[in-house]
Amino acid sequence: MQTLNVLNKGQVVIPAELRQRLGIKPGHVIEIRDAGDHLELYPLPTDPLQAFRGSLKQDISLANELIEEHKLEVKCDADS
Questions:
Q1: Which of 27, 22, 31 is nearest to 2 (CA)?
Q2: How far is it, in rounded angstroms, from Cα 80 to Cα 2?
């Protein structure tokens, strides 16, 4: 565990080893969350769109599922 000193203006310095490992560079935006009894720091991606690209992909096509569901509804209506 590493410790940080809080400077006069409330600033903290993230140790170089952690900055390098996490790819944090000057100007990088970091989110801070109040977790009750402690704080959590999260480096935000420099390009949010690139970071989330592909995260919503699924093996199943929603369009194909809707088509199949519609076919079943049509068949049930025809049988009634």
A1: 22
A2: 71
